Amino acid sequence: MATYLELLAEKRALDARIEAVRAEAAQEALAAARAAIAEFGFTPEDLFGKPRQKRGPRRKREEAQEGANAQAADQANFDLFGDCAAH
């Protein structure tokens, strides 16, 4: 039976092999993607879709949220067990 340290050494070696094979596979995938782009003339929009349209300013919503948060904070400051000052 392998010892703990031997298993750790095997794990490090396996992790290194995995990373090397992953890097090679990534390079192959990138080369295939580049070849397809060159062959078919794909554009960034073809690959990634159209960029999202930026929406207008959201100040009104943010200001309303800030006001609601302030009101909730004011209401949160109450005594959960009744009016302790009266006791």
Automatic annotation (TrEMBL):
Biased composition (Low complexity): 66-75
Region (Disordered): 45-75
Protein name according to UniProt: H-NS histone family protein
Species of provenance: Paraburkholderia tagetis
